[in-house]
Q: What sequence folds into this?
């Protein structure tokens, strides 16, 4: 992720998550040391993902793929890139939250070996819970 990509990344997040989207402040925070912020490029940006690596476990914060490029392996490429980075940094576990209603994301994470370890009530909105999913990085 470079400064020039931030506006595009924010606009995609607004398209996907409306009011719950990251603002520019959160976008800039994801570029600070202790995080990893990556862009998938296919002749232009098609997706982005962010991870916090400050804790004992790598923490995936978000993955956004342009709706015009879904089911082309972009989400998998972004996730693989973050997991490889976490391994290189010596992390032995990775954690993330995903909305219980988000079937595409849950399927992606399960395909990569994540399993639900808990559920947080009202994490996204009063009626939308999150699964906490984890994976060993071996
Ligand atoms: C979830 C998301 C990142 C997946 O990105 P993607 O580029 O379409 O994913 P991939 O093409 O790499 O698909 C990998 C696997 O994910 C699963 N998957 C992806 N989209 C799916 C869908 N619509 N329905 C069911 N499974 C799906 C499948 O297991 C797929 O493997 P397969 O193609 O061999 O069946 C994308 O749908 C997205 O950006 N959604 C909106 C943002 C979001 O919810 N992010 C996650 C926040 S926790």
A:
């Amino acid at each position: 992720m470079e400064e020039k990509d931030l506006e595009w990344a924010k606009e995609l997040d607004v398209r996907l998550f409306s009011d719950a989207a990251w603002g520019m402040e959160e976008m800039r925070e994801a570029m600070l040391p202790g995080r990893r912020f990556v862009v998938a490029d296919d002749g232009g940006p098609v997706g982005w993902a962010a991870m916090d690596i400050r804790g004992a476990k790598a923490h995936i914060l978000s993955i956004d793929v342009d709706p015009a490029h879904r089911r082309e392996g972009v989400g998998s490429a972004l996730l693989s890139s973050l997991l490889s980075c976490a391994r290189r940094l010596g992390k032995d576990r990775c954690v993330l939250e995903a909305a219980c209603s988000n079937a595409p994301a849950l399927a992606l994470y399960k395909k990569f070996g994540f399993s639900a370890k808990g559920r947080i009530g009202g994490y996204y909105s009063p009626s939308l819970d999150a699964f906490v999913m984890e994976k060993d990085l071996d």
